[in-house]
Amino acid sequence: MAFAIKVNGTTHSVDVDGDTPLLWVLRDVLGMTGTKFGCGMALCGACTVHIDGVATRSCVTPIDSVGKSEITTIEAIGSTPAGARIQKAWLDLEVVQCGYCQSGQIMSASALIAGNPHPSDSDIDDAMSGNICRCGTYVRIREAIKHAAQSI
Ligand code: FES
Ligand code: FES
Questions:
Q1: Distance from C-alpha of 48 to C-alpha of 145, rounded to nearest angstrom
Q2: Residue 18: CB within 6 Å of ligand 2?
Q3: Which of 21, 26, 87, 100 is 20 to 30 A from 38 via CA?
Q4: CA distance 79 to 97
């Protein structure tokens, strides 16, 4: 079945089953491999994208639920004000270790400061608790979010 989805400002027509996860469409159909597969069960956050600005696990989001929503992925988050601040903070504080989880981390952090420019520690913990990092970069992630908030 054909679906017209809007990703990073461009409408794409994709021909897939309606229950196909958005993550599969992004990676396998559209070739946008910045969004990662981790668990496939909404448990790790590696697949996080924004749907109408809300951080969303694309591995459990069927394509037929997306409709006309605006999807933003890691490939374009740097063109949003919050995403640009977060990416700069990530570089300034050298957050990344292996990197596998980091696109999801950046998507969750960007959604956080877009809606809450000066988050408290508990705000950060609440927003980021679903994003797992096997390398344990959590301390640097929290500091980078605060660093990004200070730049506003
Ligand atoms: S791959 Fe989607 S939450 Fe883990
Ligand atoms: S940086 Fe390696 S899993 Fe997070």
A1: 17
A2: no
A3: 87
A4: 24
Q: pLDDT tens digits, residue range 106-146?
A: 999 999 999 999 999 999 999 999 999 999 999 999 999 99
Whether 49 contacts 26, CB under 8 Å: yes
Which of 123, 122, 100, 101 shows the shortest CA–CA distance to 111? Answer: 123
- Give this prediction's pTM: 0.97
Confidence bin at 150 (pLDDT 50/70/90): confident
Q: Characterize 47-80 residue by residue with b for buried, 16 or more Cβ atoms within 10 angstroms of its Cβ, and e for exposed.
A: bbbbbeeebbbbbbbebeebeeeebbbbbbbeeb
